[in-house]
Amino acid sequence: MAGVPAALAAHDRIRRSTDLPLFYGKKDKDTITPYLLIDRLEKAATIATWDTDERKCTEFSLILRDQAIVWWKSLVKTNPDFNRNNWDAVKAQFLEAYEPKYTARTTCTSFQELFQKSTETVHDFFLRVTESLEKMTDAKPPQLLVVRAPPAGLDAAEGLRIKKQGLDDMERYFLQQLFTAGLREDIRIKVMEAGLDNLQESLKLAREVEVIHNDRRHHKANISAINEEGQPDIPEDEAEQDRLIEAIHAHRARNGKPKDKKKKGPCWYCKGPNHMQQNCRKRMAAKAPMVNKDGTPMKSHTSAIEETKPTDQSHSEEDYYKMASCSTIHHLNY
Q1: Other residues' Cβ atoms within 10 Å of the Cβ of residue 235
Q2: Distance of alpha carbon 294 from alpha carbon 291, whole angstroms
Q3: DSSP secondary structure code for residue 274 in this structure
Q4: CA-based nearest residue to 119, from 210, 180, 33, 31
Q5: Are the C-beta atoms of 99 and 33 separated by less than 8 Å?
Q6: Which of 50, 169, 181, 220 could cross-link with 55 by S-S, CB 3.0 to 4.6 Å?
Q7: Distance between CA 289 and CA 297 in Å, rounded?
């Protein structure tokens, strides 16, 4: 009984590893491409030890739905001699029906579309380039694996291994070139300037540059919002942009919390709240001089008022009281 939990855990792990997605034969419903589905099934067959073609074909038929089931039944109807238990034959028919065959024309069309879209991340673009290249290389003719003019004494298996290694290196180099060439210009320039000869390092750098540029665009959007409120335009130079961003952050840090304003009043003349005596309506209506805190008239201030009072009556009473108050503003209560 001690081995039961371990056996159940192993069974559950295998079940999850071999849990294949359903295939409907409709682009709007399928969550995986036909090419990747075949790859997933063959890996699942290795994990679950589906050793026979019949078992692989049975498992494959069980994940088909809707139009894909109709296609499965049509294999025998169109060709009575077709063996639906021959995995290689079923796989070939499935890919021919649902995966466009990679010809020279489709390859060129696919490569023309290998540029990073405005809404596409570096990672997603890399996966799209990888998938396109894999489809092309999987369709390469068998003659490419022939070792021409092998050196004397070289074992055939060793020669084939070396040839495959060379082809793999060339495919990685080609993948790096396609990936770099298709990146958005602002990212591509930085990657090309680095002059990296390693695909993984190029991908890593492109992701880092993307993060930096996305952050800069985010700051630009914030600045644009400020511009609508009358702030200066964004400079074209990136260094100037960075300095402007830092200045805005520093300004916000200094002025993030508005200072409390001092409350006005009470008025020394009428003792009322929320105003000072130079604006006191009661005092101005009574044409009374301003007073000290103890209520005594400001004689020097009164003289200043008389001196500044205009004779042409072009100013209001409040205006010349204010003009007079400027000379002795340090005496007033705030």
Answers
A1: 13
A2: 8
A3: S
A4: 210
A5: yes
A6: 50
A7: 6
User: Would you say the pTM of this structure is higher than 0.70?
Assistant: no
Q: What token pair was written down for 219?
A: 């700051």
What residues contact 297, with CB distance under 8 A and at least 6 apart?
A: 288, 289, 290, 291
The pLDDT profile of the chain, 334 residues, written as one tens digit per residue, is 556 666 666 656 666 666 888 999 988 899 888 888 998 999 988 988 888 999 999 999 999 999 999 999 999 888 889 999 999 999 989 988 887 665 556 666 677 788 999 889 999 999 989 888 887 787 777 788 888 888 888 888 888 889 889 999 999 999 999 999 999 998 999 999 998 888 899 999 999 999 988 887 776 666 555 554 445 455 555 566 566 666 666 666 666 545 445 556 688 888 888 888 888 888 888 888 888 888 888 865 444 444 444 444 444 444 444 444 444 443 444 3
**87: its two tokens:** 């995995």
How many helical (H) and strand (E) elements, i.e. helices and strands, does the chain have? 14, 0
Which residue shows structure tokens 């999987």? 138
The CA-atom distances, in angstroms, between 186 and each of 57, 182, 206, 213, 241 are: 48, 11, 10, 8, 16
Residue 64 pairs in a beta bridge with 23
Does the CA dihedral 15-18-21-25 come out positive or negative? negative
